[in-house]
Design a protein that fits this description.
The protein is mostly helical. Helix content is about 60%, strand content about 10%. Strands 1-2 form a two-stranded antiparallel ribbon. A hairpin with a 2-residue loop joins strand 1 and strand 2.
Amino acid sequence: MKKLKEGSFTLVLVLVIVILLGIIAYTLLIKPAINAFVVAEQNKGYTQGYFFAVASLMQQGVSCQPVPVYFGNYTLNMIATECLPEECLQPNQLQVNLS
């Protein structure tokens, strides 16, 4: 009977140690690797979104029509400078008197 109790105590002790080692391995190795992968994928998605938005604006701008850009309640109509008449592209000769 005493042998059986010693064996079961040893088995329980080994199981507790294995479980604790598993928790430590998960906390120190597996979880940081998963988090790094998730962050890398999110950054890749953000970058692809930026490229898509810029490419979309450029494709729409080729038509020489105003392209509405929305940000919250604010709307900005953009147009490609190639579509504007030459006199609109000349710098303004605005005189400012600071005296």
